[in-house]
Amino acid sequence: MARAGGITNAVNVGIAVQADWENREFISHISLNVRRLFDFLVQFEATTKSKLAALNEKLDTLERRLELLEVQVGTASANPSLFNT
Amino acid sequence: MAVPVEEAIAALSTFSLEDEQPEIQGPGAWVSSESAATSSPIEYSDVSAYRLSLSEDTKALNQLNTLIQEGKEMASVIYTYRSCVKALPQLPDSMKHSQADLYLETYQVLDLEMSRLREIQRWQASASSKLAADMQRFSRPERRINGPTITHLWSMLKLLDVLLQLDHLKNAKASIPNDFSWYKRTFTQVSVQWQDTDSMREELDDLQIFLSTRWAILLNLHVEMFRVNNVEDILQVLIVFAVESLELDFALLFPERHILLRVLPVLVVLATSSEKDSESLYKRVKINRLITIFKNDPVIPAFPDLHLSPAAMLKELSSYFQKFSSQTRLLTLPAPHELPPREALDYQRHYLIINHIGAIRAEHDDFAIRFTSSINQLLLLKSTEGADVEWSKEVKGCVYDMVVEGFQLLSRWTSRIWEQCAWKFSRPCKEFSPIESNEAPTSFSDYEKVVRYNYSTEERKALVELVSYIKSIGSMMQRCDTLVADALWETIHAEVQDFVQNTLATMLKTTFRKKKDLSRILSDMRTLSADWMANTSKPETESQSLQPGGDESRANFFYPRSVPPTAAQVHCLQFLIYEVVSGGNLRKPGGLFGNSGSDIPVNDMKQLETFFYKLSFFLHIMDYTATLGTLMDHGFLWFREFYLESSRVIQFPVECSLPWMLIDQILESHNAGLLESVLIPFDIYNDSAQQALTMLKQRFLYDEIEAEVDHCFDIFVSRLCDIIFTYYKSWGASELLDPSFLFALDNGERFSVQPMRFMELLKMTRVKLLGRTIDLRSLIAERMNKVFRENLEFLFDRFESQDLCAVVELEKLVDILRHTHDLLSKDLSIDSFNLMMSEMLENISLVSYSSRLASQIWSEMQNDFLPNFILCNTTQRFVRSSKVPPAPVQKPSVPYAKPNFYCGSEDLNSAHQSFARLHSGFLGIPHMFAIVKLLGQRSLPWLIRALLDHISNKITTLEPMISGLQEALPKSIGLLPFDGGVTGCMRLINEQLNWGKKSELKAEVLSGIKEIGSVLYWIGLLDNVLREVDTAHFMQTAPWLGMVPGPDGQIVQSHEGGVSPIVQLFRSATAAVIPNPGCPNPASFQTMAKQAEAADLLYKANINTGSVLEYALAFTSAALDKYCSKWSGAPKTGFVDITTSRDFYRIYSGLQIGYLEESARGRPNNYEVLGDSVAWGGCTIIYLLGQQLHFELFDFSYQVLNVAEVEAASVSHRSPHSSQGWEALLEAMKKARRLNNHVFSMLKARCPLEDKVACAIKQSGAPLHRIKFENTVSAFETLPQIGG
Fold first, then answer.
1. Residues B531, A17: C-beta atoms closer than 8 Å
2. Of B310, B780, B957, B1079, which residue is most buried, by most CB within 10 angstroms?
3. Nearest to B21 among A18, A29, A50 (CB)
4. Does some domain include residue A58?
5. Which of these, B685, B836, B839, B697, lies nearest to B772 by C-alpha position?
6. A29 has a chain B CB within 8 A of its CB
7. Cβ–Cβ of A75/B848 closer than 8 Å?
8. Is B803 helix (H, G, I), strand (E, B) or coil?
């Protein structure tokens, strides 16, 4: 019966596994930090978006007020005679 | 200059990234870099490195995995298959000749679809044979190759599942055979001209058999498997594995659990239908265990809207598998629709989320707290330098435990939703929902029966709650993904190392010392996964830990390394453990770990088992984000392909869509707690769209979802805005009710508003929807701006359709709206109310002073108020005269609006309406307040000007009439003789006052005078109100402007350093703040100080406002000056002319006695036509013409009264009957005299005639007081004119 557990060259495998652990430590370290960078970017985007939204809101309000002022000035300048007396 | 990675990354966290937005939506964006450890990303090519002779197994495993992938794609093709035949056009009769072309086209279209089906048929044949071959190869008793590994077993199970699903779908989709038969028809039509169609025909027949045979795939698989008679062993192993995994239910997440549940019946059928002894299965697995499993889950979800039932499946399969039909115990299991009512109720209790939601809520709260606290611990640990190793291990272990628990919770909850759906699909609602009873109950589709009417209100609520729990826990875990990753890896590493270095070492030394072959396996396990050097960074303990087992009493101590084992390592470890416990023998009786025949001690067995199952869970944890994604995926709630086909419609209406039903439920419920979860159902849409694109890979599904989401989101926003507006409106309205009154009221709570929170929703600037980001806040703000304007518009419309008395109601409603605006603008930035108000009033122009409201009030006064209202001097009110035939006034009908355009709720509406009703019948002081408040300083002068012009116009129109009346009077009228008594006087008067032809002018003149009087009295009321308002204003501003009462009661400016207190205050504040270096913005303080000076100037100029009434009287007097010569014949002699009849007072006197007589003669309506304002008008004109004394001396009625007095004094010795019959007239005369005296005294006070003074308004708007000026109308030109 072919039994499992036939690691043919146990010592070599052991050394390779050990090296593998170390290599992978390096890899997972790098990949985790890359992910953290991504995370930061995502979060940064979110924050920026909400700040832009706040800014947009203020601009909207200002825009409407400006529109109103424009109309008011328009009414005034359409009747210059009123201001000449 | 290399910066260490950690430092660089850590530096990022110093950026301040505050985010205003609350987390009330599931995560929309995933950053997942894991290489999906649950299925090895490199197809287990690294397994060979461990030299376990597993290459055959790995090859087979990868083959199966490829098949699984392909099979899943096939399944999604079938699942999303929609009938083509339904879309085929019918040829009209006129085009019958081109029928052949149509057949060809149809054939070509269908051929494409049918080629896919043919592909599926071919694929399933090859998959079955490959699976069968695989099983046979790995289950030979004389095994020459290693395997099958546990991963391999899983792949077999999964492939079986895929085949089963395909079969199930093929059975369920009726449109496929339909399309096929159409295809065959067109083929026979088209192929007539073709040669050599036999092979195609054969192929078609094949396909037809495949498509029309139920369970064709399973039957085919059965045939393939039992070609060689040795797959029973592996089938039994699979059954044992499935049963044990299900019973243990530790390492299974719900997708795997569902796979096992689906596959198990098929496995049982296959295993018992072999030629050999079918009972051998039950020697390894007791039949009761199987029955328990089948009974526990009578319905298993298979596809989003398709479920499987083991009992029903077993029954159906028994007719295809002869041998199996003898298994009576399994066949007597009731299918879901056959369940006896009591059992069905039990299952219902189990399946419905609503029965568990309490426990789930507690679990959620508890878990959320513990998870957060463990994360906090981790953060603390990370910020501590040189932390204790033990502590660090404990904290990280705790995080690991929490993650495991979280996955299990999420898995349990999501599977609850899946299972509830399956249960609901298996039991369509029988009785129809009473809410929609008005609809014809016959028109319900099947899908409506299983979804729309199958979830009660409470069930929907529970579902929303559960989905939001899952999403919130999920996104909480998702957010700290990169934070916990290394802690998790470290813990997993530690667990593995602890097992291989310590536990295995102990085992090797004790129990397995004698068994060479088993101990070899164990040492192989150590070889392939032990990390002996993990502690190289800590050399001081190196010697200790490098000697495994050097110290018997002490376990190996190793330093953590944050690296998880690879998928291949886990794969190999599981394989080896399985080898140890099974001895490499598939035939070994008993279960996996539960066999008693083994020579491994129970204790070790237990340890091996625990580690074995832990290993399979490690894979899920290593797949952190991917696992979370699977566990939080609720996309299945939308899909309904199966029902779409059976209902023969293109798509169901949005009301049938479960996500929308949930949104609808939340919006309907007005439940403050649920409202914050209102965005969660949109996550379901996100998930479905994701599934449509990535799993089902069908663009049309995505398009349908997108269309639905677009539609739903629009409705959602508009309804949400409506709710928000209504809520704030009712809140505002209820705050404006008198609180003490409400307190005293029994049912006062009807008028209070249930508090709700919209803050969180109003902060949502980034709603994630199908990959788009939507600024919900700005959408709401936009709509709110619109709705406020619409509301104002409506209020003005409403006012325009009512009379002037409604101005109080208008003012109240505008007030409520303003308060609503105040409340709302705390949470949302919307346009200022004044801006909206002036926009809706149409008075933003700088050169126009009129406004919509002012001109409405004016036209209302002109057309309705002045002609139709009469004054009552005593009550100071104008009321509508009942006697004046109402002048036909064209008014728009009262516009309809929802309750939230009034006060919000119905109760509040009625409360405020009953208040408004009090003021709807008259016009008095409250109305003046309302007008002053609504028109403000801007439009009020315009209105006053309009009124004054009205007076002057009236005088002009009266002038010719009065001249006419003057002509009708005799040239001279003497004093009344006393000797005739009252009767004689009256006779004489009647003789003299024979107006002749001009008598019809009388009424007109009287009503003209009445209008003038009304206007003057109205202005008088206005004056009173303005005084009050000004006084209040003055009280508020005086202290700031430094006004103090002087010794004589006059106002004195108290100047300290020449400036008023407000200027002083801001100046000193500025002076104090600016030198301070911490002051962020010194310029703004300087601006403030400047503005204080401006305010000082502006308010000081407004301190002494003039009287409107005095102004009006002066104006009237000026207007009368033109007619002075006509209406008062200046005596040439310089003496009082007794007999003149040209003076105005004569006319008025005549008119007055005329109407007094009429009213005394029993025609009382005269008073009701004219009211008291005639006296006001007449007396004012008389007074301003300087004829007051003349009038008091020579008025007919006064003279009559004098006569009557004398008569009364001598009544005792003269004829007692002389004044009889005149009492009523005398009484009326006395009343008129009293009224006239009142008016004169008022006029004397307000407009002293000696020096004609009045106030004027300078060009700048500042009033001039008590100046002397020439009375001409042009002096009053400063008031804004109509049309100006």
1. yes
2. B310
3. A50
4. yes
5. B685
6. yes
7. yes
8. coil
Closest CA to B395 of B490, B474, B499: B490
What is the predicted pLDDT for the residue at B548? Answer: 43
Asked if residue A36 is part of any domain, the answer here is yes
CA distances to B538, B1062, B1070, B1079, B1144 from B1075, rounded to whole Å, are 58, 21, 9, 8, 75
Q: Provide, rounded to the nearest whole percent, the portion of chain B with pLDDT above 90.
A: 26
Instruction: Name chain A contacts of B143, Cβ cutoff 8 Å.
Output: 1-2
- Write the residue in B485, B527, B844 that is nearest to A7 by C-beta: B527
Q: How far is B486 from chain A (nearest CA, A)?
A: 8
Tell me the pLDDT tens digit for each residue of B669-701.
Answer: 888 888 888 999 999 999 999 899 888 899 999
The answer to whether the beta carbons of residues B756 and B673 sit under 8 Å apart is no
Minimal Cα distance from A83: which residue of B?
A: B847
Alpha-carbon gap: B1015 to the closest alpha carbon of chain A (Å): 30
Substitution target in B529, B847, B849, B938 with the highest count of A β-carbons within 10 Å is: B847
CA distances from B609 to B233, B254, B581, B613, B614 (A): 22, 21, 9, 6, 8
What mean pLDDT do residues B577-587 have? Answer: 74
Distance CA B47, CA B339 (A): 49
- Is the pLDDT assigned to residue B388 strictly greater than 60? yes
pTM above 0.80, yes or no: yes
User: CA-based angle B293:B296:B299, to the nearest 5?
Assistant: 105
Q: Is the CB of residue B381 less than 8 Å from the CB of residue B387?
A: yes
Report the residue of chain B nearest A25, measured CA to CA.
B563
Closest CA to B692 of B635, B627, B771, B767: B635
Chain A residues near residue B146 by CB distance under 8 angstroms: 2, 4
Task: For residue range A19-28, list pLDDT tens digits in order.
Answer: 888 898 888 8
CA distance B926 to chain A (A): 33
Other CB atoms closer than 10 Å to residue B1086's CB: what's the count? Answer: 15
Q: What is the ipTM of this complex?
A: 0.89
- Select from 1.20.58, 1.10.3470, 4.10.410, 1.10.1330 the CATH code of B52-225: 1.20.58
Question: From A80, which residue of chain B is nearest by alpha-carbon distance?
Answer: B847
Residues of B in contact with A22 (CB under 8 A): 533
B577 in Cβ contact with B529 (< 8 Å): no
Q: What are the sequence ranges of the domains in chain B?
A: 52-225, 231-336, 489-632, 635-711, 722-923
* Domain annotation covers residue A54: yes
Q: Do residues B884 and B868 lie in contact, with contact meaning Cβ atoms separated by under 8 Å?
A: yes
Tokens representing residue B983 in the block:
């009767």
Nearest CA in chain B to A68: B844
The answer to whether residue A49 is domain-embedded is yes
Report d(CA B1207, CA B1201) in Å as an integer: 9
**A35/B829 CB distance under 8 A:** no
For residue B730 the two structure tokens come to 């009712």
The C-alpha of A70 sits at a distance from chain B's nearest C-alpha, in angstroms, of 10
Helix, coil or strand: residue B1268: strand
Distance (Å, rounded) from C-alpha B72 to C-alpha B120? 11
DSSP conformational letter for B881:
-
Range of the domain at A36: 22-76
- Number of folded domains that form chain A: 1
| Cis peptide upstream of residue B892 (ω within 30 degrees of 0) | no
pLDDT by residue (tens digit) across B1175-1191?
A: 999 999 988 888 888 88
Q: Which of B790, B797, B891, B804 is nearest to B839 (CA)?
A: B790
Q: What value does the mean pLDDT of chain B take?
A: 83
Write out chain B residues lying below 8 Å of A40, CB-based.
Answer: 9, 12-13, 15
